[in-house]
Amino acid sequence: MGVEFTTEEGAIVGVLMGSSSDWPTMQKCSETLSNLGITHECNAISAHRNAERLAAYVKDAEQRGVKVYICAAGGAAHLAGVVAAITALPVLGCPMKAWSLEGLDSLLSMAQMPKGVPVATFAIGSAGAINAAIFAAQVLSLSDDAIGEKLLAFRQEQSETIQELPQG
Q1: C-alpha triplet 91, 95, 99: angle, nearest 5°
Q2: Which domains are seen in the chain, by residue range?
Q3: What is the pLDDT of residue 164?
Q4: CA distance 6 to 105
Q5: Whose CA is closest to 75, among 55, 45, 98, 57?
Q6: Confidence (pTM)
Q7: What is the pLDDT of residue 5?
Q8: Distance, CA of 150 to CA of 1 (rounded, Å)
Q9: pLDDT, position 4
């Protein structure tokens, strides 16, 4: 039986989760990427339980054109680090709240990567998942003007949601 994972034609971002329990948080990442017009794919692949499947996914994804990985995991949170070890592409880490330490363990395992194997690490939970999607858009906008325009429009919309204090 061959390795199976979900692919999306034209995906330039691979969103990976250590388990499907990360989906409620990472769905916000996926929605943000969609709102910015970024084709992406989402998969749950454990770095510990599915190491060979993970390596096969990364190799296949890069051959298909994925340019950035967003990796979410809780607990030991090694998914982002393992992906960073097998690719030269940007890896963005989203720590998840897990069974202990409210996600601090996940945050530290992503942020404390050894020299030479970086993982850009974001806040624990939904804010980090959304910011990782926005950061991926910023990276991709360096070579894609359409993404840059959508990103600027998003930032303008975000600015317009802040109400000024009444003058009185």
Answers
A1: 145
A2: 13-148 (3.40.50.1970)
A3: 75
A4: 29
A5: 98
A6: 0.92
A7: 64
A8: 41
A9: 53
What is the secondary structure of 61-89 as a DSSP string? Answer: HHHHT--EEEEEE-TT--HHHHHHHH-SS
Q: Tokens for 80, please give them.
A: 């982002």
Identify which of 91, 1, 85, 27 has the alpha carbon closest to the alpha carbon of residue 51. 85
CB 38 within 8 A of CB 12: yes
> Two tokens at 149?
């325009």
Q: List strands edge to edge, sheet with 120-121.
A: 40-44, 13-17, 68-73, 91-95, 120-121
DSSP code per residue over 27-45: HHHHHHHHHTT--EEEEE-
Ranges of residues in the chain with a pLDDT under 50 are: 1-3
How many CB atoms sit inside 10 A of residue 113's CB? Answer: 18
Token duo for residue 111? 């942020």
Joined together, the tokens standing for residue 63 give 């051959």
For residue 1, what pLDDT is reported?
36
In 3D space, the residue among 36, 28, 33 whose CA is nearest the CA of residue 13 turns out to be 33
Q: Cα separation of 106 and 50, whole Å?
A: 19
